[in-house]
Amino acid sequence: MDSARLRPISPIKKTMDMKNAKELQTLRWAGDLHRILCMQGGDDDVSYAKNSDAPASAISLSKPFLIQSIQSMKLFKGEPSLRIADLGCATGFNTLATIELLVESLRQRYYMECSEVPEFEAFFSDLPSNDFNTLFRSLPTLYDGKRQQHYYAAGVPGSFYHRLFPKRKLHVAVSLSALHWLSQIPGSVLDKRSLAWNKGRAWIDGAKKEVVEAYAKQSEDDLTAFLRCRREEIVEGGVLFILMAGRPGQVQPENQLGDPDSRAKHPFTSSMDQAWQDLLNEGLIDEERRDTFNIPAYMRSPDEVRRAFDQCAGFEIQTLEYRKIVEHSKEKQEEWIKDPISYGRAKANLVRATLKPMVEAHLGPNLSEELFERFERRASADIDMLHKTCFYGVIVVCAIRK
Ligand SMILES: C[S@@+](CC[C@H](N)C(=O)[O-])C[C@H]1O[C@@H](n2cnc3c(N)ncnc32)[C@H](O)[C@@H]1O
């Protein structure tokens, strides 16, 4: 695609961006990904709050499992308060609606089955870089003049790959569309001399064996670390409910997204790599800058998830399933076929909502906006892709702390 029409960047801005990016890059190489990984805050068009339809569909799909696990959960009679945590809550409707659903379902059970209904505490937990202010502003008010709110809310900043709560604190822990984010990019993938150097790609789909193996190992270490921490924090009989992006069982990890259309259309694959290549071809970045950007996400298979539970022990799995969700409705697809520009914009906003803080840390604000603009144009221009239907895979796990 011709990129000559794109807005040029002033040389001064470019130098400042590169300097900024170099400093931030050092931060990242030092293993501080958790300081920059976050969804885009606020509530404008490029915010996560306005671009979380796919996770919302994943939650709707898994809602029956969540309700079922709450219905069959042991009741903690005599406990003055029940404690629920959402790990990787971000901002927006999904976390609020999930906490509300959990509190209401448990309230009703206690009301029907026990003489007393406990109070509820909800812990919204995410990395410190999360926009907790926007989240807190959107919480229902504690007392609306007529009735007391159903739960007391608190924010817990930190990585879910570490301990976040004291021992035996939680009765229910959920993590929704968050655990596919890894704790770090494996060191070998960022080492130019290593066989796992991920040249020319922003992600691992279709990457060479060594890159995929490094990500798979990181994913295994991360998931077992997550489970070991939750094993300490969840009371006996408590529920751990996980929904994470995943891949079907029979599919090898280098094929992260299942079928070829989904692979090609996913925002982390072709259009993303082309956009980086555009910046390189236009002399706005060098090869090293492109090749050191990697997306820290990994889609696990159900077997990989089960293996981590086996390694960790302490949980009894009740449900472990892979499910597929269609990317968007038929009507939306038809609308976009008629208006590819708005398709490109919607996809670019989705990418901004999930990757902007990370890309900005790598490129600085101006160059990262250039990248997103190129992504938008690449996505709009791929008319064939618009006719294809793409799926997201999710893994749903419900487990009880033994
Ligand atoms: C795609 S959002 C999902 C948000 C929300 N649960 C939902 O379903 O809409 C993923 C969230 O996981 C968070 N996250 C990623 N890695 C994390 C980690 N190591 N510890 C805590 N949160 C993390 C991100 O900051 C982000 O807010």
UniProtKB/TrEMBL annotation:
Could you tell me which SUPFAM superfamilies the record lists for this protein? S-adenosyl-L-methionine-dependent methyltransferases (SSF53335)
* Coiled-coil residue windows: none
Q: What is this protein called?
A: Gibberellic acid methyltransferase 2 isoform X2
Q: Name one GO molecular function term.
A: metal ion binding
Tell me the keywords, alphabetical order. Magnesium, Metal-binding, Methyltransferase, Transferase
Keyword 4Fe-4S, does the record have it? no
Organism phylogeny: Eukaryota, Viridiplantae, Streptophyta, Embryophyta, Tracheophyta
Q: Which organism is it from?
A: Cinnamomum micranthum f. kanehirae
Query: Which GO terms fall under biological process for this protein?
Result: methylation
Keyword Methyltransferase among UniProt keywords: yes
